[in-house]
What does this fold into?
Amino acid sequence: MMVSKHKESLIEVCQILAEQQHLQVTVKSAAKSALITGVGAFFGALIAGPIGVAVGGTLASVTTAVATKGTYKSVVDILKNDLTPDQQGRLAASVGKNNG
It folds into this structure.
C-alpha cells in the first residue's frame, strides 16, 4: 500500500511526539480533566436544569484545575522545553516537508 508523502510526514511527527513521556501524561491528564468537567456539568444539569450545567461545569473545572496543578505540562511547554535538540530538528524537518 502506497502512503503519500504528506501522511508519511504526519506519521513521523506523531512518532517524534510519542517519544515524549510528558506528552503522554498531558494527554491522559487532560482527558481525565475533561471527563470530570463533563460529569460535573451533567450532574449540575440534573439537579438545577440549564443553569446547573454552567454551575456544575464551572465547579468541576475549578476543582480539577486546582487538583492537577503542577502535575502535567502544556503541549507548547513540552515542545519548547522537553524535546531534545535532535527531536526538535526532526520535528521541524517533518513539519517543513508539509509546508514546502
Observations:
- The chain has five helices and no strands.
- The chain has a mean pLDDT of 85.
- The longest helix spans residues 21-48.
- The CA atoms of residues 2 and 8 lie 10 Å apart.
